[in-house]
Each structure stands twice: as structure tokens, then as C-alpha cells.
Design brief:
Length: 93
């Protein structure tokens, strides 16, 4: 069993409050969960309204499938995010 983690550090320039940030992240979480059936969590910067570090996790018996899903998620987030990705990291366990 292979577990894949996609860690993204994102900048949300249009967010003016924690409420705005929460709305963007909830929309993103719902999209990732419904389209890719992956788990989503905010990992850091919970008190900053224009910055976040999120983790997205998926698993499969084949590493290639996990990598392909995480790459698709990263592209989808980049295309639909109301902000920009500062850093992306892929980890496999």
C-alpha cells in the first residue's frame, strides 16, 4: 500500500479575513474530495488570512497511480485556486 501526500503552500491575495480564507479552502476541499476522493487538511498558518499550507492525501496499491492522482490534483488546484501556489511537495510512504 502506497500513501501519497501533496503538501501545498498557497498565497491568497484576495482574502481579507479568516472567513474569506475559510470559504476558499472549504470550496477547494469539497472540490478535491468530490473529484479525486482524497483527504484534505490545513497543516499550517491557521491564523494567517492570506497564507495556508494544506495537505492532500490519497492511497493505492500502486505508486504510479498515487503519483498520477496527486499530479492531477496539483494541476486542478493550480487552475482553480483564487490565489497562487508558492510551494508544492510530494511525499510517498
Amino acid at each position: 500500500m502506497v500513501i501519497g501526500l501533496l503538501a501545498l503552500e498557497i498565497f491568497l491575495p484576495y482574502s481579507q479575513s479568516l472567513k474569506d480564507k475559510r470559504k476558499v479552502l472549504n470550496t477547494l476541499r469539497d472540490r478535491v474530495h468530490s473529484r479525486f476522493n482524497a483527504a484534505f487538511a490545513e497543516l499550517d498558518y491557521q491564523d494567517k488570512w492570506q497564507r495556508s499550507r494544506i495537505g492532500i492525501v490519497t492511497l493505492n496499491s500502486q505508486k504510479g497511480v498515487v503519483d498520477q492522482v496527486l499530479q492531477k490534483i496539483c494541476r486542478d488546484v493550480e487552475e482553480n485556486l483564487e490565489g497562487e501556489i508558492i510551494l508544492s511537495e510530494f511525499h510517498y510512504f
